[in-house]
Amino acid sequence: MGSDGASAEVVRRLEAVAAEYIDALVAWRPGAEPPAVHMVATTPENVSPDSNGTLRVGDLLCRRSLTPRGLLATARFWAVVDLLAGVLDRGSTSTLREIYYRLVYLFDSQEQSNDIVRDICAAIECPRHALGVGASIRGAMHGDFCAWFRDECIDGRDVGGEGLAIPGSIEIVNSLVLQVRPEVRLVLVIEKMGVFHRLVHERLCDVVPCVLLCGAGFPSLATRRMLRRLLSSCQEHVSAFALTDYNPHGVAIFQTYRAGARRSAATAPECACPSLQWLGLSSRHIDGLQRLAPGLGDIPSQPLTERDWEVSRTLLKDPAICADRRLVEEIDRMSGVGKVELQALFTFRQRGLSLVDIVASIVLAPV
Fold first, then answer.
1. Which of the residues 46, 72, 82, 318 has an alpha carbon 20 to 30 A from that of 367?
2. Per-residue pLDDT at 352
3. What is the pLDDT of residues 68-107, one digit of tens each?
4. Do the Cβ atoms of 85 and 75 come closer than 8 Å?
5. Contact yes or no for 193/248 (Cβ under 8 A)
6. pLDDT tens across 5-52, in order?
7. Rounded average pLDDT over 284-308
8. Model confidence pTM above 0.70
């Protein structure tokens, strides 16, 4: 089905949900159950990992009812439906940020409007990008690859120090033709954009033929989709590692790339990267770096916050995390070591060690 046909199908589903709701509203009588929108539940009990650890949504349904307490939520739902139907009708696209600002009078925060978009996806059982909704550009990549978009070939080594911006739209990501050079040995996913830029500037790719990708914290769906497409373009011997802060959020970011996020589980299968491995930072790396430059004192660290502890407890309830003994041990050790940010590696420049020297040593001895 072409893109026009796909858009028409999504509009048809939106109209069907609206028609069903209007019929229920017209037929409603006092004392009867209030009208509701039925949708696939994305609650924890209806989201579970498959054999590869990728999160998938089950068949459990839930209701969004028109009740006195739910009047504002109902108004928000149908306002966003109306906006998105217009976007599809015009053959246009929108970002989550744009949706929030166009309906800012209805919402207290963008998180609320993002939740409504997820509810709409659950109600019509389609991924977010089918609604013409993408995230703002937030990721970048650099290294030994070429990308063709329309008739333009982009060399991943000639995109400047900022890297090639990853589009916010999954449809655009899917339209790219990617070719990873045969000499590539690894794909390295980096949590922090500052570290990504430094590794580009110091030319890590000259030391280890690789592709660098950064999602600037928790990755967007489009960034995760780009990583999956990138890995599918690599030869079998290429390894994929994630380099994050040494804290529970770093592990959660890795797990989002690997298995998806519960809130976007309906789209997870096409964006998950189950072959991705957690490289670190790990406690072993921190101990090794301390020995490498003892005169610098301790690597800067901070105690875990209550929010860190909450993330840690959530991670240890995840079957995929619990099945990985190394990750469980590292999460436990964080309580004593504290959290160490990737930027702490910049400390070693005082000893004449470049960030590339340090990262290359970590990459070349990952376990």
1. 318
2. 55
3. 566 788 888 889 988 888 888 887 778 888 888 888 888 8
4. no
5. no
6. 667 888 888 888 888 888 888 888 877 777 777 777 666 666 666 666
7. 71
8. no
CB 110 within 8 A of CB 96: yes
- CA 196, CA 160: separation in Å to the nearest integer? 12
* DSSP codes, 44-108: GGGEEE-TTS-EEE-S-EEEEE--GGGHHHHHHHHHHHHHHHHHHHTT--EEHHHHHHHTGGG-S
Per residue in 72-86, is it b (16+ CB within 10 Å) or e — as a string? ebbebbebbbebbbe
pLDDT at 1 over 50: no
The residue assigned the tokens 């996806």 is 121
Place of tokens 């301790």: 298
Q: Which residues pair with 180 in a beta bridge?
A: 145
CA 99, CA 113: separation in Å to the nearest integer? 7
**Type of residue numbered 75:** A
Q: How far, in Å, CA of 231 to CA of 258, rounded?
A: 12
Q: What three-state secondary structure class fits 180? A: strand
What tokens does 286 get?
């921190």
